[in-house]
Specification:
331 residues; alpha/beta; Quinone Oxidoreductase, Chain A, domain 1; Rossmann fold; seven-stranded mixed sheet; six-stranded parallel sheet; 10 helices; 17 strands; binds NADP nicotinamide-adenine-dinucleotide phosphate; binds zinc ion
Length: 331
């Protein structure tokens, strides 16, 4: 019976080590040993919950259930936010299983395991083989952060002639700059301050705007698309005037409250607001291949997969000093 160490959140936000034991593998279940995990901004939202944290996992297959078809012991695989779906609803049948009404997602299902730990048991159908060109540590942050920004760009058909804005240079944002640049777009970065300018330009940005204290923003060309990857909702009054007509805005930040956008500018300029969540499996596979081919990798800071390592990484992320994704590595 698989058993492994896990790291959980708690009411007061402190991290706790615990053990999870699973029954014998059945169906297409895979038991894997975790080798690396990214720390996503969304994990900060759940550190006060009594649940195992982490959803940017990479590991090596230890053993497989009786109905596994293609994975075998020793294979390197990743997984992200979604662990299961019904397989027969309209969303599942059209390859949009991230919107399945019975989807099993992080913080909603399987609370006894995540990617902060030494092992996990997941369905083969929701695991992704890691291409040879990507290390475990580089591949981990792609499982949620990379998948989320690639999904917004790819699923909603970004064209290489577009000017794409990326707001927020964090875990998601620094990957989004690379994906959009490699897709051939002109990339405009909007960041809180100018502290990240040099790195953003090296990652492929063509223009960089520091927003601190600005009453209005100035871009050399209006944005055809904007990915908002800040950790809180932005001031949409600043954003509306820099959008091109018929532009698309992808709000990706997880936040509370309502979406309030200047109403007439949206109507008169035909602006489209398109929410989205991680990536369906077909898109996730493509993202990994695209990243391996174009050498798109996160800039990482490594921490040990221990109570202290997780606590330190979360504090650094929360303080705004992470450059740009923490990766936890079991000792
Ligand atoms: N929709 C989805 O499927 C999905 C998937 C994953 C994550 N998310 C959400 O996406 C957001 C970004 O995640 P992440 O992992 O990239 O987080 P992150 O690494 O913390 O990056 C967020 C960035 O937002 C900016 N920022 C920091 N504090 C801010 C504040 N108080 N107000 C506005 N901006 C602030 C900073 O960029 P600058 O220094 O450049 O300003 C920071 O680097 C989070 O809300 C996360 O929960 C959504
Ligand atoms: Zn995430
Ligand atoms: Zn379904």
């Amino acid at each position: 019976m698989p058993s492994f160490t896990v790291f959980k959140g708690s009411k007061d936000g402190s991290i706790h080590e615990s053990k999870t034991e699973k029954p014998e593998l059945h169906g297409d279940q895979v038991f894997l040993k975790i080798t690396a995990s990214g720390l996503c901004g969304t994990d900060l939202h759940y550190r006060n919950q009594d649940m195992v944290l982490g959803h940017e996992g990479v590991g090596v297959v230890e053993s497989t259930g009786p109905e596994c078809k293609y994975l075998k012991k020793g294979d390197r695989v990743g997984w992200g936010y979604e662990h299961d779906s019904c397989g027969h609803c309209r969303e599942c049948l059209t390859g949009n299983e991230t919107y399945c009404p019975e989807r099993a997602m992080y913080a909603m299902a399987d609370l006894d395991q995540g990617s902060f730990g030494t092992g996990a048991v997941w369905r083969e159908a929701f695991l992704f083989r890691i291409p040879d060109g990507l290390s475990d540590e580089a591949a981990a942050p792609l499982q949620c952060g990379g998948a989320t920004v690639f999904n917004a760009l790819h699923t909603y058909r970004t064209d290489p002639t577009e000017t794409v804005g990326i707001m927020g240079v964090g875990g998601l944002g620094h990957l989004a700059i690379q994906f959009a640049a490699k897709m051939g777009c002109r990339v405009v970065v909007l960041s809180g301050s100018d502290r990240k300018k040099d790195e953003a330009m090296k990652l492929g940005a063509h223009e960089f705007i520091a927003m601190k204290g600005a009453k209005e923003l100035k871009v050399s060309r209006p944005l055809d698309r904007l990915l908002v990857t800040t950790s809180a909702k932005p001031d949409w009054n600043l954003i509306a005037p820099i959008m091109a007509s018929r532009a698309t805005i992808h709000p990706l930040s997880v936040d509370e409250g309502n979406f309030e956008f200047p109403y007439m500018p949206m109507i008169l300029n035909g602006i489209n607001v398109q929410g989205s969540v991680v990536a369906a499996r077909a898109v996730h596979f493509r993202m990994l291949e695209f990243a391996a081919q174009h050498k798109i990798e996160p800039i990482i800071e490594k921490f040990p997969m221990t109570v202290k390592g997780i606590t330190d990484a979360m504090e650094k992320l929360n303080s705004g000093d992470m450059r740009y994704r923490a990766v936890l590595v079991p000792q």
